[in-house]
Amino acid sequence: MIQQEQVDEIMAFCKAKGVTYYDIQVELVDHIADSIEDLQKSNPTLPFSDALDIAGKQFDNEEFAEIVKSKKRSIEKKISRSIEKEFLSFFTVPRIMITMLLIVVALTSPYFISGQYRFIPIILILFIVLYITLIHAKPIEIEIRSIKEACQIPLLSLDVQSRYERFLRVIGFLYYLSHAIYFFFYASDETHKITDPTPQKILILQLVLVVYTIICILYLSSIYVRQKAYNKIFDQYTKAFISE
């Protein structure tokens, strides 16, 4: 049975081999420990340090680098699966119902853009933006930032850019782009006859509001997913966040 001080020796060996990510070192511990145990089974009197030296010489730098690459791919896949699982878990029945309700409001509100009800679409937009930025997004972003800043040892898990992370960039870009389009092309358009809607204008406004609502919901889900994923990483690799 490998003791903690022996685990530390293996971690130090991995670091000396150029493995800087703590979670990769953790993955390599089991791989190297198995080799050490096999050596000690065949030679029970073999000291641990000698067994570690022999195990380390069993593969050259290229073989070791290939093992490290394999472990990196394993962690990237694991984190990606975890992130995608959290994304699906975000859409609980109540949240799905709220999303459908917002879409219904987005589809129906353009029919009330004339007269005293013309402010309804704007209220919908402001409500979603305030809900995301003030109630949920900002506090969660602060928590995510604090976790990253608290990390004392490099973690590949925090640097993984999964398919979902790339998807988030697109959502974030569309989120801010929709703001820019509204303020530059819609809010400043004095010739826009909001009091005289046509079927074409209503259809366009419906499309804009529905797309904007979906983007906002996805943006909110992205913040939620990152929070859950980072908290799991913190719990799994707590030692990486402790100052020595």
Account of the protein in words:
- The chain has 244 residues and is mainly α.
- It folds into two domains: 4-58, no CATH class; 80-241, no CATH class.
- It is built from nine helices and no strands.
- It has helices at residues 4-16, 22-42, 48-57, 61-90, 93-108, 120-150, 156-159, 163-186, 199-236.
- Helix 2 (22-42) crosses helix 3, helix 4 crosses helix 9 and helix 5 packs antiparallel against helix 9.
- The relative contact order is 0.12.
Q: Could you say which structural class the secondary elements and strand pairing correspond to?
A: mainly alpha
Fraction of residues in H or I helices:
over 70%
> Helix-strand pattern, N to C?
HHHHHHHHH
Give the rounded overall mean pLDDT: 77
Largest sheet: none
Rg on CA atoms, Å:
27 Å
| Shape estimate | elongated
Total beta strands: 0
The domain tally reads 2
Poorly predicted ranges: 189-193
Task: Name its key features.
244 residues; mainly alpha; 2 domains; 9 helices; 0% strand; elongated
Outline of the structure:
The chain has 244 residues and is mainly α. The chain has helices spanning 4-16, 22-42, 48-57, 61-90, 93-108, 120-150, 156-159, 163-186, 199-236.
Any chance you could write out the topology, listing elements then pairs?
Layout: H1 4-16, H2 22-42, H3 48-57, H4 61-90, H5 93-108, H6 120-150, H7 156-159, H8 163-186, H9 199-236
Helix pairs in contact: 1-2, 1-3, 2-3, 2-4, 4-9, 5-9, 6-9, 8-9
